[in-house]
Fold this protein.
Amino acid sequence: MPIAYIARTRERYAEYPPFRWAVNTEAPWTPLAKPIKECRLALVSSGGFYLKTQPPFGENDTSYRKIPWDTNPADLRIYHHGYRDADADRDPNCVFPIERLRELEAAGVIGALADPAISFVTIYSARKELEERAPKIVAELKAAKADAVLLVPV
Amino acid sequence: MGLIAREIERAGIPTLSMSSAWDITFAVRPPRTVFVNFPLNHQTGKANDPALQRRILLDALRAFELFWAPGMMLTLPYVWDPRDASWEEKDFGPGFELYGVGEAMQEGFAERKLGRAQA
């Protein structure tokens, strides 16, 4: 049975004002114009990954890091405050699948990978997410000519 | 992140989200979602199990082509541990320590903020 994260979050942080989750009853839609094997696929992660040569994330940080596809996973670092990172630390592919996606590109399952992959860390303001972060990510994906985007939220 | 997915989709690029939090995803409603009932942070598989990671990604990419209505969510048939589902009782519950167990975290350590008031 899937975990009721919203209820457990309320229990865990009962001493704080309740987090107001966004609730939507409809979703926007753009049809996939061609098969994935012809698409330039982008990867966007909110797992807080950054290169060891890049600055780490901070609190309420709407910035993002560009992770080139030829990155060695050993050069990745994680800054995140909302999940257990031990497994991702051992093998980032369990939530930031750069090696697996490179293999799928080589196998022709994916047309190409939109370079670079993008990573940032969760914040808790929907307003900042929409007004500050989203436009930057959209611009980055358009610059990379992405046809389709795989998002791995954490 | 679901909010970001919606903005990308609105800007004209189709998206697929990989979720392990069914209730949050259902509330936020990104355009397309595959749900994997694994502990958070394992949406694309178990650590050091490239075969499983590959299968999950192949399923996700196939689903990407099959979704036909906004907000659809497909549950993939993967089970974290067929003999023991007790992680579902413990994870994220009271006393569950979220962080500080990985070496990479030692470089930057964030204060616990989840659930705090909104801006």
Q: What stands out?
A: Chain A touches chain B through 93 residues (CB under 8 Å). The longest strand of chain A covers residues 40-45. The two ends of chain A are 19 Å apart (CA to CA).
